[in-house]
Write a structure and sequence with these properties.
- With 410 residues, the protein is an alpha/beta fold.
- The chain has 2 domains: 181 residues, 3-Layer(bba) Sandwich (FAD/NAD(P)-binding domain), CATH 3.50.50.60; 154 residues, 3-Layer(bba) Sandwich (FAD/NAD(P)-binding domain).
- The strands form 7 sheets. The chain has a 5-stranded parallel sheet with strand order 3-2-1-11-22. Strands 13-20-14-15-16 form a 5-stranded parallel sheet. A 3-stranded antiparallel sheet has the order 4-5-10, with no helix packed on it.
- It is globular.
- It starts with a strand and ends with a helix.
């Protein structure tokens, strides 16, 4: 029996699962599409004010360090699983890896490559790192289109475009789907003006801005004086097909709001909400403290448009049903969590989908519905960072049990 696990996805769930399996004596290979590890959490700011706010963002560095140091954890970035076939109790996976890179020692950060790249997001500068990375998922060369625009314009000859993918074959005893979530696309909500009204961004974008410390870039070249958060954008909305609570949005917005008030006490912060959902222990005390500095308005805005000065104006109906309009320098949409492609090519008709469209069952189980295939973290449904880690620990235990039983021929 091949006691090794293929982990698809190198975010916090995949990393913590790899470490837990390593501690149990089980080898694993993490396959990550992005050119760096960490997933969404790599762009999250620490929310600590005078005290730790228990957002969990700092746990990523700990698990990154553990995974990179572990002898029995193999990591493949800029990689994708092309095919998976099952033979008896084993899975055979073919992985392609394209190592197109920007050589950091040569790059002088002139920005010319960013100007000529024809695809938005093909060149990435993550919040945790000042380096440029090439997203092989979006790069034209990875999609059958010849392009050397970045390499040709680079005066330092710092861009190396790999012509062909390197093929890797893996034989494993189990597969773990740790593909995480996709953020709800707020352009589907035209009334909120995302990408149409200047000064409207998402919580994910604000998180990244606060991590880099360049807060001024968020609003017309200067720090905003007033900020509004709008909750439940793409959550609890049957018309959007997302008739469930994303669980983390209230906590994220309130922690971001508290962090802003801590760093910039002069900024006025308002949160528009339907209900405050508290899925975390001890969150009520965080909410109580937040109410001392932040205005909470129980109303779902009906529209955001630009006012006469070009700033976003939030329109809503108050408790007496009168139409209200408040201008803000910045409006932050708390976008929900939606399912993403499980990225498991092959014929596995038994894979479960739960009632909300995520992988697995409705009861937080780690089984994905096919023997030897498991799910961990937000791929199974909305979860906080801490909940993703706990789910990965549960998955590691179940994977070990499955591999041990398979080894005994049970």
């Amino acid at each position: 029996m091949k006691k090794e696990t293929l982990i698809i996805g190198g975010g916090i769930s995949g990393l913590s699962l790899a470490w837990e399996l390593s501690s149990l004596g089980i080898s694993s290979t993490i396959v990550e599409k992005a050119p760096f590890m960490g997933g969404h959490v790599s762009n999250f700011a620490c929310k600590a004010t005078q005290t730790c706010q228990k957002c969990g963002a700092c746990q990523l560095e700990d698990y990154l360090s553990k995974a990179f140091k572990a002898d029995n954890v193999n990591i493949l970035v800029s990689s994708s699983v092309d095919s998976v076939a099952q033979t008896g109790s084993h899975f055979m996976a073919k992985v392609s890896q394209r190592k197109s890179i920007v050589i950091s020692d040569k790059c002088d950060d002139c920005g010319l490559c960013l100007k000529v790249c024809p695809v938005e997001g093909a060149l990435i500068r993550p919040a945790f790192d000042s380096r440029l990375y090439i997203s092989n998922e979006k790069c034209l060369n990875s999609n059958g289109v010849h392009c050397e625009a970045c390499a040709q314009i680079c005066p330092q000859d710092a861009v190396e475009l790999q012509k062909k993918s390197q093929e890797v074959e893996l034989e494993v005893g189990a597969i773990a789907l740790c593909t995480g979530f996709a953020p709800y696309d707020p352009t589907q909500k035209l009334k909120f003006g995302y990408r149409r009204v200047p000064g409207v961004i998402t919580t994910l974008e604000l998180d990244s801005i606060l991590r880099t410390g360049n807060f001024q870039s968020a609003a017309f070249g200067e720090a905003p004086k007033s900020i509004a958060f709008i909750q439940c954008v793409g959550s609890r909305d049957p018309r959007s097909g997302t008739n469930y609570c994303s669980q983390v949005c209230c906590g994220v917005s309130i922690r971001l709001a508290c962090l802003i008030k801590n760093r910039y006490p002069e900024i006025n912060v308002t949160i528009f909400y339907m209900d405050i959902q508290t899925f975390e222990r001890e969150f009520d005390s965080t909410l109580d403290r937040a109410k001392n500095d932040i205005d909470f308005i129980r109303a779902m805005p009906s529209e955001i448009h630009s006012d006469e000065n070009g700033f976003p104006a939030v329109i809503y109906h108050g408790g007496d049903e009168t139409r209200q309009m408040i201008p803000f320098d910045l409006v932050v949409l708390a976008v929900g969590i939606v399912p993403r492609d499980p990225d498991l090519p092959g014929s596995f008709p038994g894979l479960w989908k739960n009632r909300d469209g995520f992988i697995g069952s409705d009861d937080n189980d780690v089984n994905a519905g096919h023997p030897g295939i498991f799910v961990a973290g937000a791929a199974q449904g909305p979860k906080s960072i801490s909940a993703c880690i706990s789910h990965s620990i549960m998955a590691a235990s179940q994977i070990k049990r499955y591999l041990d039983r398979a080894e005994r021929g049970e």
